[in-house]
Automatic annotation (TrEMBL):
Positions of the ABC transporter domain: 1-205
PANTHER family: ABC TRANSPORTER ATP-BINDING PROTEIN ALBC-RELATED
Keyword Transferase recorded: no
UniProt xrefs under Pfam families: ABC_tran
Name of the protein: ABC transporter
Source organism per UniProt: Streptomyces nanshensis
Compositional bias (Low complexity): 210-223
Amino acid sequence: MLRGVDLTLQEKSLVRVEGANGSGKSTLLRLIAGIDVPSAGRITGRPRCAYVPERFPAAMPMTVLDYLVRMGRIHGLGRSTARERAREWLERFGADAYARTPLSELSKGSSQKVVVSQALMVGAELLVLDEAWTGLEPAARTMLDRAVAALVTDGSTVVFVDHDPGRLAGAADATYRVEDGGVRDVTGQEPQRRGAPASGPRVRVEAEAPPGVVLPEGLPGSPQVRHTGEDTTVLTVPVAYSDALLRGLLAGYWHIRSVVREEQPR
């Protein structure tokens, strides 16, 4: 049971929640998402929210596409828009072949792609992910990493739990630990907090600035920056933020010379 929780989520932020099994992480996420209500106290200012539960009830009597369209309608999307976005996200996760498959016939990995798609397709201001990467193959996990980074870059808040301590390493704006029935801010104690070198693979982008243009502040992924010439800059970010960083540079008319993936030095 959680007690005395006082937590404020900032806009446009990535928030990691940690804790031992059974500590109350899922309870906290369900409260944040509005699935559960607190027995005391109150939650205020919750924006439009999408939620990926720890366990997906895949036995619902409908096909994948019917389920996604229904979820989109619940979130206020028109039927044609919901159908279009559902197909788009199924394709991104390599699950478009299952559109007409009953939910009950899906494997664990395929059903996880569906439940993640229903959360991503609605463009929520608050996205809550409870072990959303579990069951996904590496390519789908990378896709989810990038989708999370893009959402935060575009202004959403994402709260997540994942058993992998390296998940989105170096990208979180805040980290909270659930223990002894409470929630503790451990952001300042986190060795891989945002802006620090991440422990996982990164992408190095070499870019050339237009005449008279300086590097904008607040680029996605808090890149490490190194100037190698009068107009040339090398920026390094976690892999998840590479797409968002490239979009930010291209929007400022920067010329991209090279994009190279780097593994962490041993």
